[in-house]
Amino acid sequence: MNRPAEGTLVRFGVGRVTLEGNLAIPPQASGVVMFAHGSGSSRHSPRNRAVARVLREGGLATLLVDLLTPEEEAVDEETAHLRFDIGLLADRLVDATDWLGEMEETRGLAVGYFGASTGGGAALVAAAQRPNAVRAVVSRGGRPDLAGAALARVWAPTLLVVGGNDHVVLDLNRQALARLRSEKRLEVVPGATHLFEEPGALEEVARLARDWFLKFLVPASTALRAAREPEPEARF
User: Fold this and answer.
1) Model pTM score
2) Which pick of 107, 117, 169, 204 has the fewest CB atoms within 10 Å?
3) How far apart are CA 88 and CA 22, in angstroms?
4) How is the chain split among helix, strand and coil, in percent rounded to 5?
5) What is the pLDDT of residues 122-177, one digit of tens each?
6) What's the CATH architecture for 8-228?
7) How far is CA 82 from CA 40, 118, 220, 222, in A?
8) Which ranges of 134-187 does DSSP label H, i.e. alpha helix?
9) Are strands 61-65 and 32-36 parallel, antiparallel or unpaired?
């Protein structure tokens, strides 16, 4: 199978630091999905890269970005503090979203967030801050509860995907789901643990995420045109 390239290295400033990411845009992309990593992960995470490949095969652009600088990651390895700084991570997601809106290649694309672990909480806080830009959110084994009061301000349709054997996180996701007011769904992958390392588990996450983003990131003009086109005549 021919797969779209992993993407090109991009750099952009957020506040006083410069972040790095990999941006890949397949032909005629219908939206762009930004990945928010958490809990010591990075844009090189094999799990998120695997999900990103499936999204690109579905016609979606992807931006896998490190929300911490290498220096910050080194500190976080020692303290595990910055990965739980949801405000910092969300602010950087917002800045990255604004950057996508200014880039010629992506400024016409609807934006979605794919958050993992603590990145799930940051994605929801950022979505609440950019309701007109962020059209969909998917959280994989995430901590949406860390979004706190921002949950009630999220407009973007939100899909929470949790492993059936990830009991504590599953309970936290159920509580967060009740606080969301947007279109929402909780999908439980049977037998999966927090990292979805079981056979077929990550593939199921990727399929669910692809379908959710394709449903909500299709440009409005495309959806309107499809609605206006007459159905073909039935032939018997």
Assistant:
1) 0.86
2) 107
3) 20
4) 45, 20, 35
5) 999 999 999 999 999 999 999 999 999 999 999 999 999 999 999 999 999 999 99
6) 3-Layer(aba) Sandwich (3.40)
7) 9, 10, 37, 40
8) 167-179
9) parallel
